[in-house]
Amino acid sequence: MKNKNNKYFEVNKETWNKKVSIHSKSEFYDIEGFKKGKTSLNTYELDEVGDVQGKTLLHLQCHFGQDTLSWSRLGAKCTGIDLSDEGIELAKKLNLEMGLDATFIESNLYDVPKNVSGEFDIVFTSYGVIGWLPDLKSWGEIIASKLKKGGIFYLVEFHPVVWMLDFLETPPKLAYPYLNIDVIYEEYKGTYTNNDADIISKEYGWNHGLGEVVTALTMAGLEIEFLHEFDQSPYNVFPEMEATDNGMFLLKKEQRLFPLVYSIRAVKK
């Protein structure tokens, strides 16, 4: 897997390394508020994962570890992985500064079996993760291999219909396939936290429909407990979104034709 897609992973790693310094200073991630006790977790995952006190948790594709550390604050024994060495370095610094006991490991997701030992009560991953993965069959198998019997996997992610749109166009244009047909390359100025940031984001990604996600998990031996779809996003990451009274965001009324977010909880029987 890694050999075949190595050039894509290398470009993505370079881009994410550049993003760390921008994201860490952004209002979006609000590191100072986070250090003072603000959680980075949202209502969906807090409600649907449940009590993590005393449980071991593996966080896949953790960026610079805020969600990992938020779960740690709630009593989980956490391990976070990410392909960005800059992200992992910052995560380790935050962990030390905040006096928490999370473990952070630099690793491509597909190298988790050789880089992360043991099994976990919970495997967690969230928001903008699936699209960096060319092969979900291996993804599902890795998740299953890292779960204890009775352990749960939880994913909350932007809906695959969202990724069919090119948000670099105004208004957003239907541009990409729903199914995983081929790698998609995008190059643009800025990043989702700062549109005017002095960075050229170069990214290779893959679109995956809900059927592919569910099948990858069930074929790996996991049992789906639920698949939920939501029309509200906890993040204001799409153009001209409207804030709701509960702190979520909606597309403009005339664009409100599809879900923005979905979640899956599965168990290893």
From TrEMBL:
The Methyltransferase type domain, residue ranges: 59-155
An individual GO BP term: methylation
Lineage: Bacteria, Pseudomonadati, Bacteroidota, Flavobacteriia, Flavobacteriales
EC number: 2.1.1.222, 2.1.1.64
InterPro entries in alphabetical order: Methyltransf_11, SAM-dependent_MTases_sf
Record-linked SUPFAM superfamilies: S-adenosyl-L-methionine-dependent methyltransferases (SSF53335)
Entry GO MF terms: 2-polyprenyl-6-hydroxyphenol methylase activity; 3-demethylubiquinol 3-O-methyltransferase activity
Native source organism of the sequence: Lutibacter litoralis
Protein name, UniProt field: Class I SAM-dependent methyltransferase
Top class in the EC scheme: transferase
Pfam families reported for this sequence: Methyltransf_11
Keyword list, A-Z: Methyltransferase, Transferase
